[in-house]
Amino acid sequence: MFDVMAKATFRLSLRYCAAAGLVGLCLTGLLPAPLHAARGGTSPGGGKTEVLPVQKAAPAVVIIEGAGNEADLRRQLRSKNGVAELGASTPKALFSQAPTGSFGFIVPRLLGMALVTQSPDLGIDRAAPATNAFEIHKLADGSGMVVGFMGKESLPQVTPSLRPKTVRIALYSNPSEKAPHIVAVPLVKLAADRLPSRLDPKNPDGAVVLEMDLQGTSTHASTQGGQ
C-alpha cells in the first residue's frame, strides 16, 4: 500500500513540475518589451540592446588631446569608443533600446532635465536636432557616455581612474578657446542641479555649458550602475 501511494505521489510531482515550467515559459513570453530587453535581447533592427547597466563599473573618462576641428575630434572619439551612428531605420530611440556600440544626440534642455531628475532613460536622435546638441555614446557593454568639451585645467581632475571625491565640472556642447578638448564622461556618474545655460543668451542655437557633479568612483552605485 505504501509503495502504491509513493508512486502516485511521485507521478503527481512530475506533472506539477512540468506544468510549472510551462507556465513560466508562457509568462516570459508575456513580459513587456522593456523588461524583456532588460534581460538582454535585440533591437528591431537586429542589433544587440541593453538597458542602462545595473551594478556595473562605470567606464573611465575618455579624452582626445590632439588638436583638430570639431568634426575630426568627434570622429576620433567615436572611433576610440567603438561607436557608430544609429541605423537609418532608427531616427529616434530610447537609450535603453538603442543598439550597443551606437551614438545619438539629445538637446541640452532634455539632457539637463534628465540629469537633474536622475531619469532612468534618455531619448536620443540619430541626427543632431540642434547645433548645440550633446552627443551620447552607448558602449559595447551598455554603458552611457556624454560627449562635450572641457578646458585644459579640468582634465587632471577627471582623468584619474580612481576619483576619491566628487568634482564639479563644466561640460560645453561645442569647442572654443576656453574648452578645446573633447571628452566623454560616464552618464551614470553625472548629477546636475541646474539646466544648461547659453554662452550667448541672444543665440538660442549657440553653444551651452552644463555645470554638474562628476561623482567619485568610491560613491555608492546608482540605479544606472557604476562603482
Quickly describe the structure.
By secondary structure, this protein is of the alpha+beta class. 26% of the residues lie in helices and 24% in strands. It folds into two domains: 41 residues; 167 residues, no CATH class.
Description of the molecule:
The protein is α+β, with helices and mostly antiparallel strands and 227 residues long. It folds into two domains: 2-42; 48-214, no CATH class. It is built from five helices and 14 strands. The chain is globular. 31% of the residues are buried.
- Give the rounded overall mean pLDDT: 79
Amino- and carboxy-terminal Cα gap:
61 Å
Q: Quick one: how many beta strands?
A: 14
Shape: globular
List the helices and strands in order: HHEEEHEEEHEEEHEEEEE
Residue share in helix: 25-40%
Strand order of the largest sheet: 3-11-9-8-6-4
What Rg do the Cα atoms give?
A: 23 Å
Q: What class, by secondary structure content? A: alpha+beta
The low-confidence parts are 4-10, 16-40, 51-55, 220-227
Count of helix runs:
5
Strand content: 15-25%
Largest sheet: 6 strands, mixed
Number of domains: 2
